[in-house]
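We treat protein structure as text, and this decision shapes the records that our systems exchange. Such a record has a labelled line for the sequence and another for the backbone structure tokens. The record that follows is passed on verbatim for readers who wish to inspect the format:
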Amino acid sequence: MLSCLVILALVIANGGTAKFAEAQNVEVAAAGAPEVPEDDDDEDDDDDDEDRLEIHLRHLEIDRAKLELNVGRFDLADRRAETASSQVRTAALVLNHLDRFVENQGQAVALLTDLIKEVKSPEVKRLLRMKLAEILLHADQQEKARQQLRALILEK
């Protein structure tokens, strides 16, 4: 609507429709007002192109997200393999999630005490003692926790 008003103002300023139409290469309607050729097809094509481009961009974003997810999966698998390659790393990971494997502190204390007796690796044994001392401390068993700390320091 605004463009029609602008065209009308230019027509009046140029002294009539015929002159303006010639100058602007516009068809003149029967009523004397200039008619701008309609380019609906061009606008529709532009809209279609924009829609296609938007859809293509969304597909690219989805593909990028899938790639990032796969990279994350590979990273996780790599970290797990690295953790599994070391008994100490594996023990540390399991001890970080110990609460998922036992129902209460009593079970955790019993499990860790048994493992300390069975494990040969001094590094893993130290990890077990550290976790046991932490659990005993939280269970208000300070004397037993001190015994574990003492064993951690003195054990070779």
